Amino acid sequence: MFLGTYTPKLDDKGRLTLPAKYRDELAGGLMITKGQDHSLTVYPRDEFAALAERAAAASRSNPNMRAYLRNLAASTDEQRPDSQGRITLSTSHRAYAGLTKDCVVIGSVNYLEIWNAESWAAYLTEHEEGFSEARDEVLRDIL
Question: Boundaries of each SpoVT-AbrB domain copy (predicted)?
């Protein structure tokens, strides 16, 4: 499981060091793609393969599904962390997520998210009250 919040720095070559506690799980390879809310999503290869299989099986007669599948496939980059646990984020991924030197990596249970530090702080501020006030309509299938 991917849990926690980490604050690695993006270096001048666009490399980000993954949190040490996740390196073994991601050593066999990972997939980086555009995420929701202008973040990046980092999936273990197997988790991404399952997601891609579900997306590919959906009806392609739905224009929204076609657009999602195209965007998912076109924006995904396969990576293998180097010996120091670093991955290289493409220029387009860095631009999409507005990544600068200060980044935040958060665990999202079965994947990681990479955020611009300021964007993550703003997201937390905006959604903190909603988290503490979550009701049955949001939580009924969880709790």
Answer: 5-47, 76-119
Closest by Cα among 7, 6, 11 to 101: 11
Q: pTM score, two decimals?
A: 0.88
Angle 45-57/63-74 helices, nearest 10 degrees?
A: 150
pLDDT in tens, the chain (143 residues): 999 999 999 999 999 999 999 999 998 899 999 999 999 999 999 999 999 999 888 888 989 888 989 999 999 999 999 999 999 999 999 999 999 999 999 999 999 999 999 999 999 998 877 666 666 565 556 55
Alpha carbon distance 49, 42 (integer Å): 12
Tell how far CA 42 is from the center of its chain.
4
Domains in the chain with CATH codes: 5-116 (3.40.1550.20)
